[in-house]
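Ticket opened by: R.M.
Priority: normal
Category: complex prediction / small molecule

The reporter submitted a protein together with flavin-adenine dinucleotide and asked that the result be attached to this ticket for the collaborator who will pick it up next week. Submitted input follows.
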Amino acid sequence: MKKDTTKKEYDLLIIGGGPAGLTAAAYAIRKRIETMLISEDIGGKTNYQFSLPGVESHLIIDGEELVSKFKSQMEYLDFARHLGKVKKLEKIGNRFRASTKDESFKAKTVIIATGVMPKRLNVPGEKEFLGRGVSYSTVSHAPLFIDMDVAVVGDGHNALLAAAELTQIARKVHVVGVPTKILDSPLGKKVKDSGKAEFYTDYEVKEIKGETAPEKIVIKSKKVEKEIPVKGVFVELGYIPSTDAFSHLMKTTPEGRIIINENNQTSVPGLFAAGDVTDVNANQVVIAVGEGANAALSAYNYLLALKP
Ligand SMILES: Cc1cc2nc3c(=O)[nH]c(=O)nc-3n(C[C@H](O)[C@H](O)[C@H](O)COP(=O)(O)OP(=O)(O)OC[C@H]3O[C@@H](n4cnc5c(N)ncnc54)[C@H](O)[C@@H]3O)c2cc1C
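Result attached by the on-call engineer:
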């Protein structure tokens, strides 16, 4: 039997303490909504930083300053929080119950802001150079690679999109693993016509090598192994939304992202979602922050209309 530490029912439960969850919390407490935040960590993906040796990082819009404001409001207002992973979320009548390993929390409404995990290449050098040349987001980091040689690794349309973006910025773009059927598209033609891309269709990356940052990738086909000098490696294999505990409740996209409307409402009344975990256009801190605020204001309106 799980321990119900509080015995009380919160107005709002926020699951996830990244930019979306923290902003939702700041807006909720400003509205005097009785809030509980449950998260495995505070800060989410903003705890990762990206810097490229020898390159000014002012081209990065990391949103850290913005998020730190909400973090400090949270400290000041000192509302209920619990560090842990939500393993199960249930809807019981018009109420919700979220359970961690050994506790459960009841609430009238819930905001899910649990983010996504990028799919990894799982090759030597990837973890070592994460944030120092290995990236999972061209939107965030491509602007740093002006006139440099980079690689994009992936097997789907997103890898081609990333390659297209990088041909506008980098000197040379080595596209590894994108199949011919995807390259034979209007976008594929554009990338080819840029004259900046090299394609390695039947290759996979075996290793990322370098001293303090990537210097080359080792790629391998059935017959050949070669090394390509690059300063950046963009891994574009897609994302895994962190929805194990909730996906049975509401509608999701084929990729597993939570479908929301313009009020950040999911397909379940009283259940809202915000940030990367939803079907928003891009995974960015400033977008997650706006979504968190919107979800909190919608949850507030829901609570006003909720019958006891
Ligand atoms: C390496 C890296 C660099 C990036 N650089 C930039 C950048 O320069 N600029 C930019 O705008 N964006 C950048 N991004 C993307 C940006 O960090 C995300 O868009 C943003 O953090 C999304 O916020 P979020 O709150 O939706 O999710 P997240 O930040 O992912 O936060 C999710 C939170 O939910 C918690 N959580 C997950 N599952 C559970 C669960 N079951 N129970 C309880 N808690 C749970 C996590 O612990 C975490 O606190 C980067 C991402 C990465 C990975």
